[in-house]
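Hey, I'm writing a tutorial for new members on how sequence and structure tokens pair up, and I'd like a real worked example in the thread rather than a made-up one. If someone can provide the structure for the chain below, I'll link this post from the tutorial.
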Amino acid sequence: FLQAYEPYLSVKRPDRLHPFENVPPLLEFRESEFLESVFVEGPPEYFAGMSKNAFVDLHRRFVRSCNFGPWLRSRQEQLLEKARRVYRDAAVRADMPAILGQPDATEVQLVDLYLQIKERLLV
């Protein structure tokens, strides 16, 4: 049932993380588009006895319930926090002299870059 919400609960990871990139935004949830996609895809095998309309109605009732908004926000926040950690780790492990295009960067340049990264990560 919850597999239908996966596009709204995932961050597209680029092939290569750059330490200065922001976490990509999540797909914005739009009820009408979501319900249309659920109708087109139809119910999964474990809901095989259910008609498309009944399956869409089940999702419609969930989306309009008082539990859906808090559930979706909570899951998206968890996902974004995990993605932020991945991006921070990429920044920490980055080869700064290579990124700067200066393999023989001075210690002062590297410290300055470190301070800039630290400031950005703490924002």
